[in-house]
Amino acid sequence: MLIARLIAEPETLGDNLARAMEAIEERGWEVAGAGMLEGCEDVLELEVLEGDPAEVRRILDAHFPDSDLLLSLHPIAAPRLFVSDMDSTMIQAECIDELADFAGIKDQIAAITERAMQGELDFEAALRERVGLLRDLPEAAIHQCLAERISPMPGARTLVSTLKARGCHTVLVTGGFHSFADPVAEQLGFERVVANRLEIRDGALTGGLVGGITDSGVKKAVLLEETARLGEGATSLATGDGANDIPMIEAAHWGLAYRAKPKARAAADGWIDRGDLTAILLLFGIPREEWVND
Q: What is the DSSP string of 186-240?
């Protein structure tokens, strides 16, 4: 059975649902149930018997283009593991682009970032190129950038705190840098951080990196490693927005794309296009009165 949960504009829900159900049933599949989720009155749940997941996804996306959606082939419950990207997912910026602004080359670096997120460039090569352009930038720019440019995505802390309260282990894994990820993780409540490390010497960036690169393969490996550590039956949720997040999104039990680039959105089990990050809690059936807002 395929379970679909979605959040859409209430005024369009009825008509769009009728058309979506008709399209599903025209393909010979049975909609076994459709109704608002108990405890989460914003969430519509559909149960489709023997439906092809890719085609059901296409139908729902066509009829609910501005929705938040999750599709699952197994029962949906709060995950034991949450692994998330940072830039443009947990925070409202791309850190390297904002840092580049202090060097007066934001447009140049942002153009490379965008192409990398779209999957048009090799991630490691693009990262090393951008970091190289920041050579001789004072280390103080990092602290100023953190203070002035980096803020959490709406709903981020509530999402992390609520999942942790339900026994979920939380990991922030990013192709960005520890200089940003460590304070962001502390602010939002993540328990582990995996990131790249800028090389700094004599109070300035050298244009290099220290140690290995956190790329898409590392992100996936971290998710699989943490899932195995939690033991048999542990379920995982991954969120991200760019091509570098696709392997971990695909490897997770549930992969959600947050206001994502097209390739990442297409790879995911669902997406958040409409609400903030607390929409994830609703899709997992966690009522608002049970959210942790600390």
A: HHHT-SEEEEEEEEEETTEEEEEEES----HHHHHHHHHHHHHHH-TT--EEEEE
